[in-house]
Each structure stands twice: as structure tokens, then as C-alpha cells.
Specification:
The chain contains eight helices and twelve strands. With 263 residues, the chain is of the alpha/beta class. The protein has two domains: 117 residues, Rossmann fold, CATH 3.40.50.720; 123 residues, 2-Layer Sandwich (Dihydrodipicolinate Reductase, domain 2). A six-stranded parallel sheet has the order 3-2-1-4-5-6, with helices on both faces. A six-stranded mixed sheet has the order 8-9-10-7-11-12. Strand 11 and strand 12 form a beta hairpin. The radius of gyration is 19 Å and the shape is globular. It starts with 5 loop residues before the first strand and ends in a 16-residue tail after the last strand.
Length: 263
């Protein structure tokens, strides 16, 4: 007997939804895209030509057949839609950042606990097999005592009209890429205490950061991180210890089966 697939509702039909989640769920044996909500019905049709199309987010949330939602709206709208979705009885996979500050994230976590609904931030590299392998190596002690962690996620040539540069809807490169590189040393080491933080920022004319370097100590280990929309493409992580080091290979943010990632 075939297993009934988990029914997803997409809120937002932008590039990430179309490039990343749509192909993944389309090939899944356990999930399907049941409905898409977007202010642009034509754009929604490109993601779900055979599914239901809503032009109102609350109509999708009211659909009893939708079991979970994937939210890929601009940053400032993540928290309110995630909370509305959980209160409507839906599990939530929300694009990063989940909130614009720590207080918003704590609010979302409280609603998740209150409603019993799963809430996950869609920071893909945290769940990547490559990352899991680095965690295993770090935890095994093969690197010895950790001495430094360095990470980078950068790209160049962001169009000046891109919403990532719009301060009114949560723009800024730290919000866009920080959940990948800036936070990586934390989840690599099990979220120990953070101390001695220093932040250096290059500001865009529109009022948001276009390059941000965040250095801090995580459990006493120095961490050096950079995110930028004004530096040639790079995506890497290096963990150094007294007995050795490990680093990711390549700089492609989306790894395919035909081009596997390396360490």
C-alpha cells in the first residue's frame, strides 16, 4: 500500500522556492506540493502547474488539506507568517532568517511549543551531509584541540534593485547569508557560550550592510566569519586544530549529484 504523501503549501513563489524546494519536493517519495500562495498567480503556476493556486496567504492557511507550509517571502514577513501558520495548525519550514532579532525567534519558538507544530529554519547547509561529516570529525577528536574556525559565504554583482538591499523588508547581507557562515561555528561546536564579539561592516548606499565580518570566540575558540555581496563568490569552511584541519572544497552553494561536495 502506497504511503500518503505529506501535503505542502508554498507561501511565496520566488527564485529560491523555484530553484531549490520545488525540484526537491517534486522528486520526493514522501511529500508533494499541494498548493501555492502568491500575489502573482502566473508566478505561482510555474511552481505548481497542477496544484491549487491562492493569491491570498490566509486562504492557503485555511485549507485543511495543507499539512505544512514553506515560507519564502522577504525577511521581514517570515515571523508573522510563521506564527499565523502554526496557529492555523500547520508545520512550518521557513526561509532564513526566521526572525529579525533574537526576541522574534524566541516568540516563534514559544508558539511552536504552544501549538505543538514543528518549526524549522531552512538553513540548508546545517543539514547537509558534508556538514554532518565535519561535525563527526570535530567530535571524534581527530583534529585535537580546536584552535580556529573560519567561514565565508560571499558573492559579487548583486543587482541594485534586488530586494536583499531593501531596508524596509529586512534587507542586508548578514540577514541573507549570515545564517549560513556567521552561525556555522556555533552549530559545529554544539552552541557553547559566545564571547569577545567584534563586527566590521561595509554599508551600502541604501542603508543596509553589503559586507559584514563577525569575529568572536565560541567556547573559547576563535571564529572568523565573512558574508558579502561585494566579494567574488566563495563558500567555504575551515576548522583547525592542534592535530590537523578540515575544509570544504569548492564554492558552489548548491551541490548536485553530478558534482559532489568534498572535504
Amino acid at each position: 500500500m502506497a504511503m500518503e504523501k505529506f501535503r505542502w503549501g508554498f507561501i511565496g513563489a520566488g527564485m529560491i522556492a523555484k530553484k531549490a524546494l520545488y525540484p526537491a519536493i517534486s522528486k520526493s517519495n514522501t511529500g508533494e506540493i499541494y498548493a501555492v500562495a502568491s500575489r502573482d498567480a502566473d508566478k505561482a503556476m510555474t511552481i505548481s502547474p497542477k496544484g491549487l493556486i491562492y493569491t491570498n496567504y490566509d486562504e492557503l492557511l485555511a485549507d485543511p488539506n495543507v499539512e505544512g507550509v514553506y515560507i519564502s517571502l522577504p525577511n521581514a514577513f517570515h515571523l508573522p507568517l510563521a506564527i499565523r501558520a502554526m496557529k492555523a495548525g500547520k508545520h512550518v519550514l521557513c526561509e532564513k532568517p526566521l526572525g529579525m532579532n533574537a526576541a522574534e525567534v524566541r516568540e516563534a519558538m514559544a508558539v511552536s511549543k504552544e501549538t505543538g507544530k514543528v518549526l524549522i529554519e531552512a538553513s540548508w547547509n546545517r543539514w547537509h551531509p558534508r556538514t554532518k561529516r565535519i561535525q563527526e570529525i570535530v567530535q571524534s577528536g581527530k583534529l585535537g584541540k580546536l584552535t580556529r574556525i573560519r567561514t565565508a559565504f560571499t558573492y559579487d554583482g548583486l543587482d541594485q534593485s534586488n530586494i536583499r538591499l531593501d531596508p524596509t523588508i529586512g534587507g542586508g547581507i548578514l540577514y541573507d547569508l549570515g545564517p549560513y557562515s556567521t552561525v556555522a561555528p556555533l552549530w559545529l561546536t554544539g552552541f557553547p557560550k559566545v564571547t569577545d564579539m567584534e563586527v566590521q561592516t561595509v554599508w551600502h548606499a541604501g542603508g543596509v550592510d553589503e559586507t559584514t565580518r563577525v569575529n568572536y570566540k565560541v567556547g573559547g575558540v576563535p571564529a572568523e566569519t565573512v558574508t558579502s555581496a561585494n566579494i567574488p563568490v566563495s563558500l567555504w569552511m575551515i576548522v583547525e586544530g592542534t592535530k590537523g584541519s578540515v575544509r570544504t572544497g569548492g564554492s558552489d552553494s548548491f551541490v548536485s549529484l553530478n558534482n559532489p561536495s568534498t572535504l
